[in-house]
Amino acid sequence: MYFRFLTALILREALFIKKNKDRWLKDEAAPPVSPDEMASAFTQTVDDLAYAKTFYAHSKTTNYLNKLAARMYLNIYRNRKEESSRLKTFWKYELPLTIQKHHRTLLFSFVLFTVFFLLGFFVSRQDVEVARNFFGDSYVNQTIENIEKGNPFGIYEGGNPLLSWLGIMINNIKVAFIFFVSGIFCGIPTMYKLAETGAMVGIFDQLFASHGYGIQFWLVVFVHGMLEITAIIVSGMAGFVLGKSFLFPGTKKRIEAFREGAKDGVKIMIGIVPVFVIAAFFEGLITRLYNDASWLTSFITAASTVFVIWYFIIYPIQLHKKNTAKALLTRQTL
């Protein structure tokens, strides 16, 4: 009789674990960050702990749930105590993991931009009028005049630095949000705008390369261009995430998938706003120093490149692998 009771208890515990294990692992590997989700997850975990203590007081499951509930409580207490930690969590964990989740979409956005960059470069190489059609005669004539004077990038030296910074920043952020919001139309306008931007950069590059300043273009323009172009590509990704979530909901209801895609897209857009701010600062105040402080502009270009590769590619992958390994270890323990 006791043996039957013990067997039934073990089977009940196994079913209890099977029913809730995925949720526990998810809460441990990727804890909720919004207050409502965090409170809901904590309440569910406490209920599970109470159930486990009632029927399996000395089991590993009870011990695990006790530790999980304690960790979640500390997270809630810490979030209430320090609102600044929310920003740290966003930049250190939430945004990189969201980017990693959509790395394939980011790759698509990058490839699309690069393909049209190359098309713009080589087409304008065959037809010099392409640059004038894109930028207008005034801009092209002024650039050529600067090249003939021996100051090819003099276009960046004009205007008030502070006003240039603010103007560029506002314009770029506005354009980026258009990229994102356009994704709601199945991503087609986003695709067009990203392709157009890639072609424009390629044509701009060829304008200098045709006069023997191809290498200088990368060293000077990418003082701000590395961050600016990266943010544009990422904003294109956010638009594609929005469009893809509606077109391809998978096993979820379309409205749920769209809501999740919109949430991820908004996170990404919030995340790249500071990138636009810094890029505009570099363009308005630093790029113009390429003649007087070339060591500084070269350092900023190199540092920006390292940051982009690390934060948008390497770090999200490392963070995802770390969380996956941690979840796998926990699963084996259970």
Give the helices and strands, then pairings.
Layout: H1 2-29, H2 35-55, H3 60-81, H4 84-101, H5 103-126, H6 129-135, H7 137-148, H8 161-181, H9 188-209, H10 214-247, H11 254-286, H12 294-333
Strand content: under 5%
Q: Helical element count? A: 12
Oligomeric state of the chains in view? single chain
Helix content: over 70%
Total beta strands = 0
Q: Which sequence of SSEs, written as H and E, runs from N to C?
A: HHHHHHHHHHHH
* Backbone structural class: mainly alpha
Return the domain count: 2
Give structural notes.
There is one protein chain. With 334 residues, the protein is an all-alpha fold. It folds into two domains: 2-81; 94-322, no CATH class. Helix content is 84%, strand content 0%. The chain has twelve helices and no strands. The protein has helices spanning 2-29, 35-55, 60-81, 84-101, 103-126, 129-135, 137-148, 161-181, 188-209, 214-247, 254-286, 294-333. Helix 5 packs across helix 10 (214-247), helix 8 packs antiparallel against helix 9 (188-209) and helix 10 (214-247) runs parallel beside helix 12. The longest helix has 40 residues, at 294-333. The chain is elongated, with a radius of gyration of 26 Å. The protein starts with a helix and ends with a helix. Mean pLDDT is 82; it is low at 1-9.
